[in-house]
Design a protein that fits this description.
The structure holds 2 protein chains of 2 kinds. Chain A has a 9-stranded antiparallel sheet. A 3-stranded antiparallel sheet of chain A has the order 4-6-5, with helices on one face. A 3-stranded antiparallel sheet of chain A has the order 9-10-17, with no helix packed on it. In chain A, a hairpin with a 2-residue loop joins strand 2 and strand 3. In chain A, helix 1 packs antiparallel against helix 5, helix 3 runs parallel beside helix 6 and helix 5 runs antiparallel to helix 6. In chain A, 29% of the residues lie in helices and 31% in strands. Chain A contains 8 helices and 17 strands. By secondary structure, chain B is an alpha+beta fold. Chain B has one domain. Helix content of chain B is 22%, strand content 35%. The radius of gyration of chain B is 20 Å and the shape is elongated. The N and C termini of chain B lie far apart (66 Å). The chains are: A alpha+beta, B alpha+beta.
Amino acid sequence: MADVSNKALRKVRRARPLLGTFVEIEAEARSGADLDAAMEAAFAAVAEVHRLMSFHEPDSDVGRLNREAHLRPLVVHDWTCQVLQAAIELNRRSGGIFDIAVAPILQARGLLPCFDEHAPTAAVTRPDGIELLAGNAVRFRDPDVRVDLGGIAKGFAVDRARDALGRFGIVSGIINAGGDLLVFGGRAQTIHLRDPRDPRRLICSIALSNEALASSARRVDPFRSAGTDDTAVIDPTTGRAATMLAGVTVRAPSCMIADALTKVVMVSGTDADELLTHYDAGALLVEQGGDIQSTSNLSDAINRAA
Amino acid sequence: MTQWIRYTLPAAAIITAAAPAYAMRYLSIEEAQQQAFPKAHFTEVQAGRVWKAEAGGKVAGFFVFDRVIGKHLYIDYAVALTPSGAVHSVEILEYRESYGGDVRSESWLSQFNGKTSASPLKINGDIRNISGATLSSTHITEGVKRILATYGGRLK
């Protein structure tokens, strides 16, 4: 497809069902690089994040933590520890708006499964509820702490897939986990944005290069609100779903940060500007009436003709 | 400090800008078979649906082609099973999606009937990357469970 003089580039695009969504990876490499092995490694990284951080799997790090971390410190995978660390920092910097401890609210709303009859009915949102100890050990300070990494792990998985591709000498590519995506190397890519109020339509497009983009919408599933494993966005300060905006899209240097910040912007709207600036991120907000607001650092990349 | 810029979109502009549909073809059945079981020889066990993979005189596994309805249109995918009937890998072969109001029309849908991934659809090639709220892959998960219930451990 893309032949550049005598340095032939080969491009491969694949998709697998992972993380409860469709993960699509496109990679471009000069002849000689092992594209198939790179693809396998990238998908394996995503599958590993899924295995470690799924709320639904009792044997995942998240499942073990929710069951036992209030009894004794548990050693988790380095990746789980990294995500917890980032989540705790985001919680602090967002004044508690980003909170992985909203799991009980999502369980009560039927958006996450309940495994035990003693499931807490309210979220424990104290900022020091999760304690990170030396050697990747984690302890919960309250027996009712339950964490769900659904608001951040997908972006983290995309970042790990990008690392995996880099180790195989892939020069450029795009990793898209159901709309949370990252573009690296090479030229800018055009990303079309769904209208969160009617996902069959596109609202605009954004040019992206060497950056990540993630979106959240008020609807749990863009086409079918019931029966999905996806998480809604909860305002931890009220315990209710964020309803101010129809949807948001965040551009950031890493997909984990983009993914997590969509949840904060869904709740805080334009008040999230300082946090966005701190993380070198930009945002696009879609209001219920269809008006769009974007940060000035993103406006040049937006093409409203979709 | 970040500044916010407001745009007002005329509703009509959104509709006219939207493309009717797009399809992404990732792998043909043959390519997916080679991907799942490199260098294996494939024998059709059930026409167009199940293949046995053999390598070095031994059964390497089974390859099952299936199709589920995505949001409005079909998603073709393949499940590779180990000789004992466990899932070895799941690959999407072709993904189709539609926009706009054309979806309910029978004649419009009928263009997809009988298509296999060997006859790729390219409806709108320039929409390749989409962001928005996350799409659920629940139907694929259910499809894989169905395949396991039907074939897991029963293929020889």
